[in-house]
Every structure is written in C-alpha cells, then in structure tokens.
Write the structure tokens for this entry.
Amino acid sequence: MFVIDGEPEQTAAEEEKVYYANCKAAKDAGASPLHKGDPGYNEKLDRDKDGVACS
C-alpha cells in the first residue's frame, strides 16, 4: 500500500488479494455485483457463469 495526498492506495497486487467467502460477504462490503476481472471476483460466486457474480 502507498499513500497519495494522505489517502492510502492499494497496489494491483494488493487488490488481487481481495477475497469474499460468499455473496453475503461481498454485499456487506458494498462490493457487489462483482464483474470478471474485479478484485474479489471468483467463478465460484458466479452461479450462471455470465461474468457477473453476486448480482
């Protein structure tokens, strides 16, 4: 993590480490829906395999 103008910013490597155990966790974090390529997206959360999880 690094800081710009007093605000912490995540690096790409840190963003890749985002993990949600289930869709409730993603929704509670305000991260849903998750699109393929988004931090935290996981095919296990994408039930219909359309590239959008927890919608």
Summary: The chain has two helices and four strands. Residues 19-55 form one domain. The mean pLDDT is 84. The CA atoms of residues 20 and 29 lie 9 Å apart.
